[in-house]
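Query protein
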Amino acid sequence: MRIVRFAGGLLTGLVALLLTVALFVYWFDYASGLAAATGGVLAYAFLWLAFGANLLLWTVMGLLRLTEETARSVFGRRPRDGVRAVPRADSRDRVLVAAGASGAASELSGSGHPEGGGTALADAGQRPSDVAERDSGGTVEGSAAEDITLAVVIPAHNEEPVIDGAIASALSLFDRWDIYVVSDSSGDATAEIAANTGVNVLELLTNRGKAGAIEAVIEEFALTDNYDGVVILDADTELDEGYVRGAKRQLSDPAVAAVAGFVESEWKPRERTFVGRLISAYRDRLYFLLQYFMRFGQTWKRTNTSFIVPGFASVYRSSALREVEINPKGLVIEDFNMTFEVQRKRLGKISMRPDTKAYSQDPFTLRDYYKQVGRWTLGFWQTVRRHRVWPSVFWLALALYIVEVVVVSFALLATSLLGVFVLVGTLWGETALTVPYFGEGFTAVTAILPLTAIVIGLFVPDYMLTCFMAMVRRRPSYLLYGVFFFPIRLVDAYLSLRMIPRAWTADSDGRWSSPIRVSNKS
């Protein structure tokens, strides 16, 4: 069976490679003719719409980083041992459900009482050896990567179908007393399921949103006092077996403040409808391009311009996390803001490597996809609004990204609308052309942008990327799903523009809106 799968994957890769080359030759030949007719403007414009200047810039930076790191490894230069650090907290409106594998929490303390909402404060989850190691300043110095201690935080709201899978994944890599689940006023069995696994569980009595839940559990258990770093996972995240080794290796560099997880879409086609598989395949392509061709260059120590440490699987050094304002008012999501905090306060570098791989469950429906991307996009623009501009290389790189996102989004939507306009005139012919002003407009547009130029210019380069991914992943189904990727790109472009005014006119409370979930336990 393995031989059959290997042969099938190899054949898929070969077919996809040949298709990629054939499409490129065809597109290049067409673009050359178009360039001759228009002075090269349209050909370059379509190429830019497909790939973008940022992708090219950071691909070059990534290659430089790869060259430097390869040279360093060849000459045997070893990284220094890390310096690890920690901080403190505050609380309200929460209940300790379970503490650790033994089920025994340390002393309850605090100001909560039944009349005030039935709250209780707990200080649990620390191991005596951890506390003994730390001096009065809360730091551990000169320690090797394997000695770095990490707490795992899993915020959840109505995640009954997936929470056991996320905890099982974490338990395969961490001790149960180092795992902290915070149920943000869930209306289902999320807290109960988590408590039955023996991990630490905190249940909030009022819905505070993901950022509020993270803030609460860190404060409640004084995690930044008792650990060198904090891992933040989504309730649908599954960790690769090398995740912890990779995270500790990166944190062993004392200059690193945060480690970004390397996301891969969970590919379980039998559990999804056609639309669900389409979304997953599209996300897989997007994540691959963003991480290998953009963020790898952005997280080079000589650039350090990454603006996102994805909240699905991130690690923060405790000394840096102490300085981060996790839950400011008015933001719909937390991860952009936490990253901007690290960058603006110069708390350290953001690191990302493929050795911190984790798997994320993508939306199953277009409705959930639209809502999720809308939240992410709104969160980005709200974070830009909150932090404003400050003089830095980070903001220079961010400005280039923002300008390109806005211009490309507008150009994609405008060109697509022109394509629909030309298509109507082509299909209905004389009937459409007799409509007042339509005929003149059709003649003017087609003189510059004939329908074939729009279709070939926009669709073919985009589909080439899909063929490339089908080759890399050895998944022939991507060749089918890729036909429908361009409309999803238009949805992304629309949301990128639509959320700009909303970010400046409306505040968010960060509360959750749970998508459809399917159990990720095998």
